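Question (not urgent): is this output format expected?
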Amino acid sequence: MTDNTATVAQENLAPMLIQVRDLKKSFGQQQVLKGIDLQIPQGSVCVILGGSGMGKSVLLKHLAGLLKPDSGEIIVDGEDLVPMRDKHLQNYRRKIGKVFQEGALFDSMNIFDNVAFPMREHLKVSEEDIRAKVEHKLKLFSLNPAEVNSKYPSELSGGMRKRVALARAVALEPKLLLYDEPTTGLDPITTDQVDQLILHAKSELGVTSVVISHDIASAFHIADQLLFIYKGEIVVRGKREDILNCPHPYVHQFLEKWRQKNQ
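Got this back:
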């Protein structure tokens, strides 16, 4: 495992929103996470790279409180997730936003109701207040409420659906956003738009983001910290240069196609 000294020094000074220590998880005889150690400073973007089946999604589900580890610690915003039970986990999940591959919008609801949904579920406020909050969130991501409120997800482009998904993800003003392969299947222009949205959430809202991805170009564009997972272990962490210079054979192979396109 390699570390970027400057990155580590900066992290030691910055408040940590996420601290994961010696996280292990098996399903039957298959050990998926093999002692993950992770620190993510508040207000940063951490991208977790790796191929399919290497443990990225399992790690993300632990951060979301959807899985319990076999052993280890998960501290998020000062709270220890591991011993939490149902009621406390529900309260915790309210504090995080999740953005899925396809946005996971409700097809039967218009855009206004999609963004309003978490507010109606968790906030005791009037419909007038909800309307003001929804319109504010939509405008944060350059969506005109008058144009999109009454439309349905199927009537929007892929890029606009991602914007709506982000507006809904920040509806309850979370400190943490979790992204599951947000650029998968998108064209280069829409991918760039999604990257800008992630950076916008960081700069305008101060949100900490954890992104799992296999998109090298996107990762290099948005990440403050990059991690590469191979067979349940972090084999390299740091900046772009640390990933590019990593001698691990799987990392080298993973990067080869990207290198060929960018020579």
